Recover the amino acids of this structure.
């Protein structure tokens, strides 16, 4: 496929309900959007949320990376996304979020050229539907146990409790209340977003021991292997990594040294959909559990891309986190099929959604406010 046009911009999107993570209240998300046009006239969209504390990339840098790469990619013929990624890696190291948005847009356009869904370009389809995680991130005056019970009654079966915003004892008590409020068939995990110290992490896993928590994600910000090893060894709850899982090199290190039992796989960290699939296959072979996730909060563009990855991964033991539901409006004129926590893998050409471009561009940030 030949790329004949590349457009890019940053949009500031409002969450419908603010989410509290490790003491920080998230009200908006600043996301990069890339629009690619193929020589056959088909348009593809890609998206990456900015996550400076995870990828090191800020909105201005993400947009700058796309603008740097655009003249290198324009009017070039690429037979596959792997060729595209190689072409981007030669002149520009890192910048995985920007590259992920470009690769997603390329795959969307390429699949539309061929009249097939994106997942057929990624591998063999293994599933048609998947249960998604819903966040329980209120704290404060919000009764999280009641919220979880209501969501369970509405059909949700996978829950992520946000902790690390209080003492381990209070967070553990709230986690246990959620576990008791939902059925035994529910999968419940906790995520501290690096909010605990090593000692606090040990305290929390001891307090929730025996209550059925499925996994505990990113308890601390430690860069000390011996602390991760000790926590994983002492905890009866499997330990996962997210912010620490910055790239495939970190993934291999944690797997080789058995420092955690699983991790949160995001396209913005690995640099594209194909690279998440490749990493997922390696992780599965080593029994390293996978939670496939979007960053809070991305639109249906990124959620659709994640679902196409989910379609082909060997295993998704820790489920999928889709985040378009947390935004205050839908930016696809033909939204994803997402009912009671069960998402359907899109089957239409490309990503399988139609972007409401006017609504999205209405949220664009003026570039003078970025640089």
């Amino acid at each position: 496929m030949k790329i004949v046009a590349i457009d890019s911009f940053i949009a500031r999107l409002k969450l419908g309900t603010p989410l509290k993570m490790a003491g920080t209240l998230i009200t908006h998300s600043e996301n990069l959007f890339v629009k690619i046009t193929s020589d056959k006239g088909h348009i593809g969209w890609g998206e990456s949320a900015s996550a400076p504390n995870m990828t090191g990339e800020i909105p201005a840098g993400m947009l700058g990376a796309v603008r740097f790469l655009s003249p290198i990619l324009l009017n070039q013929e690429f037979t596959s996304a792997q060729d595209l990624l190689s072409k981007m890696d030669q002149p520009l190291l890192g910048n995985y979020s920007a590259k992920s948005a470009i690769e997603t847009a390329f795959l969307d356009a390429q699949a539309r050229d061929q009249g097939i869904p994106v997942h057929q370009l990624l591998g063999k389809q293994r599933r048609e539907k998947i249960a998604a995680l819903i966040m329980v991130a209120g704290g404060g005056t919000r009764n999280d146990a009641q919220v979880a019970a209501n969501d369970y009654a509405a059909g949700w079966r996978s829950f992520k409790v946000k902790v690390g915003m209080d003492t381990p004892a209070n967070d553990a008590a709230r986690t246990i209340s959620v576990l008791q409020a939902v059925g035994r068939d529910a999968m419940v995990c906790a995520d501290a977003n690096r909010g605990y110290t090593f000692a606090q992490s040990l305290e929390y896993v001891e307090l929730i021991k025996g209550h059925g928590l499925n996994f505990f994600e990113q308890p601390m910000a430690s860069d000390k292997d011996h602390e991760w090893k000790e926590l994983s060894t002492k905890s009866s709850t499997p330990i996962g990594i997210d912010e620490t899982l910055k790239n495939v090199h970190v993934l291999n290190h944690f797997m080789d040294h058995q420092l955690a039992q699983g991790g949160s796989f995001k396209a913005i960290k690995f640099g594209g959909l194909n690279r998440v699939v490749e990493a997922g296959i390696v992780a599965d072979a080593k029994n390293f559990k996978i939670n496939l996730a979007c960053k809070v909060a991305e639109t249906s563009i990124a959620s659709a891309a994640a679902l196409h990855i989910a379609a082909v991964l060997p295993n998704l033991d820790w489920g999928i986190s889709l985040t378009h539901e947390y935004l205050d409006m839908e930016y696809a004129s033909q939204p994803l099929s997402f009912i009671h926590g069960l998402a359907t893998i899109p089957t239409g050409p490309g990503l399988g959604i139609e972007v409401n471009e006017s609504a999205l561009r209405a949220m664009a940030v003026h570039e003078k406010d970025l640089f």
Observations:
- The domain at 3-115+357-369 is CATH 3.30.390.10 (Enolase-like; domain 1).
